[in-house]
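Structure first, sequence second, as always.
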């Protein structure tokens, strides 16, 4: 069974390329369709906007200017709920990749791709799209608690400087939103904000992903490839999940930051880098300062300024505003009636510990909007209570009902899944990437399950 119910669209005129990507991705995602001609895009969109589009930038043979793909990208961005777009290009043309990112693509991949990299890029795009679906990317960081006022004032002070910033906090507290806010308030706002999940970069392609490579520099290097450092030139590079990087990768990143230059694999000359680095991790500080986990010299490069985003349970004053925001947002999105939140429900929600922080609150609001059956939202609508213990079934005559057995199995499975996920999260100390790896799931799939179980 697929890991996610996501709908992916591969838009590429080369049917062999599209087929190869479809075969690779359809084991993991619910629906993967292909299209070889952008002229037929409308009919696909009429049947439902995909979650992620893998978009070739050139369709007519011989064209390499990318204008056709960029026009499709512009069109997709005007949709009410635009898909995440990963630009595909056969030529590692840095200006074109940068243009695609500026126009809203969330990532780019050069063909021929590395399968692990393509899978990771789709997972990241899905996770990021669901994270940004709340509209918070445009409406900014919400919350007027003393803690959030402190975070916002730090952002305002550091944004205009070029200082590297490290954002610390548990999963789902809003670290990426903080990074985006820093970029938006900086002199680099007109250039690219490029997020890279450092925990998801395959070790084998780490260097070429970050620094690029030249055609022919190794067996699979059939064309030049731009790295993330080149693609974000002039803008902000957001190094997410930095605490999940292997030590070998940390050493390579440190060298680049110290020298302020990168050498693409196979190139004979280094290139100066012009990016502002914002990094983030959910590692607790004791682990971050453990040299066996994270190199102190790299930490020193990255944490010129540290912004700590407190967990939601330490800023409960923010809960009512966030609930109101996300309930209204999903009421509008799902065209559901506007309901009040029962005062007792609001109080219980404010008292909830919110282990998944704002992301979990957002999922809980979505669930409540979809499932609410009364005039006002009740606490049960948010799906936060632990499932009741499974009753020991009384002996039933064998022929009683197969349907009831099925329902019990389903319930036990649901409870078991929730417990397993909670145990993995506990073992991984809240580190989502690590927990996902322990469970054999992608990050995106784990996020979905967290939402389903209200964790
Ligand atoms: N202050 C906030 N106001 C509004 N929405 C928020 C706020 N903080 C977080 N969110 C929402 O919560 C979700 C998670 O935010 P974000 O991805 O920035 O968290 P994160 O700390 O980077 O998570 P992770 O560590 O898992 O990558 C997003 O949907 C985001 O829009």
């Amino acid at each position: 069974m697929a890991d996610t119910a996501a709908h992916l669209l591969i838009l590429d005129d080369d049917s062999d390329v599209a087929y190869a990507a479809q075969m690779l991705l359809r084991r993991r995602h619910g629906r993967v369709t292909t299209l070889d001609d952008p002229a037929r895009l409308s009919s696909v969109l009429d049947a439902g906007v995909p979650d992620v589009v893998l978009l070739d930038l050139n369709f007519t043979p011989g064209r390499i200017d990318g204008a056709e793909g960029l026009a499709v990208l512009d069109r997709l961005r005007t949709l009410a709920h635009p898909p995440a777009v990963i630009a595909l290009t056969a030529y590692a043309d840095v200006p074109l990749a940068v243009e695609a990112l500026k126009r809203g693509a969330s990532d780019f991949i050069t063909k021929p791709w590395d399968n692990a990299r393509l899978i990771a890029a789709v997972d990241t795009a899905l996770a990021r799209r669901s994270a940004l679906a709340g509209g918070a990317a445009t409406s900014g960081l919400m919350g007027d608690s003393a803690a959030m006022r402190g975070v916002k004032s730090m952002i305002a002070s550091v944004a205009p400087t070029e200082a590297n910033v490290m954002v610390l906090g548990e999963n789902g507290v809003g670290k990426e939103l903080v990074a985006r806010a820093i970029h938006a308030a900086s002199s680099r706002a007109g250039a690219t904000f490029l997020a890279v999940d450092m925990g998801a970069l395959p070790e084998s392609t780490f260097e070429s992903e970050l620094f690029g490579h030249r055609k022919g520099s190794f067996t699979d290097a059939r064309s030049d490839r731009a790295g993330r450092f080149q693609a974000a030139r002039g803008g902000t590079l957001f190094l997410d999940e930095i605490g999940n990087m292997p030590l070998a990768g940390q050493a390579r990143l440190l060298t680049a930051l110290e020298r302020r230059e990168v050498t693409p694999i196979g190139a004979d000359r280094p290139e100066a880098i012009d990016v502002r680095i914002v990094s983030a991790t959910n590692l607790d500080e004791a682990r971050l300062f453990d040299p066996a986990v994270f190199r102190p010299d790299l930490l020193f490069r990255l944490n010129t300024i540290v912004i700590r985003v407190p967990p939601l349970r330490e800023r409960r004053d923010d809960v009512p505003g966030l609930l109101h925001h996300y309930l209204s947002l999903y009421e509008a999105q799902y065209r559901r009636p506007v309901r009040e939140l029962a005062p007792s429900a609001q109080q219980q929600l404010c008292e909830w510990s919110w282990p998944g922080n704002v992301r979990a609150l957002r999922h809980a609001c979505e669930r409540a909007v979809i499932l609410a059956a009364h005039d006002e939202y009740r606490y049960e609508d948010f799906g936060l209570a632990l499932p009741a213990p499974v009753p020991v079934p009384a002996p039933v005559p064998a022929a009683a009902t197969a349907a009831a057995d099925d329902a019990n199995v389903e319930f036990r499975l649901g409870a078991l899944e929730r417990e397993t996920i909670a145990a993995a999260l506990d073992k991984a100390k809240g580190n989502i990437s690590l927990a996902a790896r322990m469970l054999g799931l992608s990050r995106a799939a784990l996020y979905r399950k967290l939402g389903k179980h209200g964790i």
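Margin note: Confidence is low (pLDDT under 50) at residues 134-139, 387-397.
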